[in-house]
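Trying the structure run again after the queue cleared.
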Amino acid sequence: MTVTAAKSGAAGSAAWADALLLSFAQGGYVRAEPSILQPADPFLDLSGEDIRKSLYLTTDASGEELCLRPDLTIPVARDYLASGRAGQPAGFSYLGPVFRYRGGQPSEFLQAGIESFGRQDRAAADAEMLALALEAAAAFGQTDVEIRTGDVALFNALLDALDLYPVWRRRLIKDFNRKVSLTEDIERLTLATAPGRNEYEGVLAALAGSDRKAALALVADLMSIAGAATNVGGRTVAEIADRFLEQSTLKAGALPRDAVTIIKRFLAISGDPDESVAQLRALASDAQLNITAATDELENRVGFMAARGIDTKRTRFSTSFGRGLDYYTGFEFELHRKGNGIEPLVAGGRYDGLMTQLGATTPIPAVGFSVWIETLVQLGAVKGSAA
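Done. Tokens:
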């Protein structure tokens, strides 16, 4: 991939982005141009309500909540699902403005990227995305970057193997996706609830050991009997059910100490990907956990990365690494300028679950990344001159 033209300022950003997009097209990724105005619900449902404060929202005449697109992954995925190629392998590239509140930074900025749908060779597709992301950064003169990777599928596999109460599993996954301190929350969950009578003692007893579906049904029935609306005190049925589930589970007992020990050991694994694989296998053996499939997928991915010419010794893998978005289901990565631990230059990952959440009738594998064009240009390390 070679980019050969640049200009200064916003025009420079666009020129370099256009050249980058051309290189993506030459690699077989077709240009996608989704609408700027999008339904807000997919972003709120799939990225979490935390994103609401960053969105630019409006409402149409029918009452549907709309927003200026805050990123391009969901819009590109929606257009793919609405097309005749839905379910088939297809790759798309994009370039365009996105809009979201970012504090003191501009709320409108350019984003380029790639989304790949329908490929069943997941490990190879993951490695290809990382290789293309590195090429994209190199096209802007950023060749010596920090490569940070993780895999939320490993954490999910660990929680499944530990066979925790559903509410604990949801809570820990939520914390993982929100990048909060898992260690602090784990410590809190190891403490049994204080003695005392809860006014909802009967409800909590009925919910003990229930799953979320059963809790939703019970709370909906109780609200119907009480003649309550679809929400109480600003909380929806789902939010009330989740709160009751958490309280009932905590009353049933603390998070098991052996599970706490295993989770902490898991979250401490980081460094060289090959060494991390060895540590994961040792943990699985010591704790008699079945996380083999997820660990094999990681090992396969590392092999494909090496085959793509990526120096895996330069890659930092961490079991606790996550990008803070609910819809990621597997491989996640960020490329950073050396010494800059905050804003990524390129970032992405695997989001297989997103497609069914957006309406696909069967699961569709999906992986991609976004390039922060203006961040790369502002670094002042662009090589080349205007044509």
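The chain has three domains: 1-142+345-387, 145-191+256-337, 196-253. Worth checking whether this holds up in the mutant runs.
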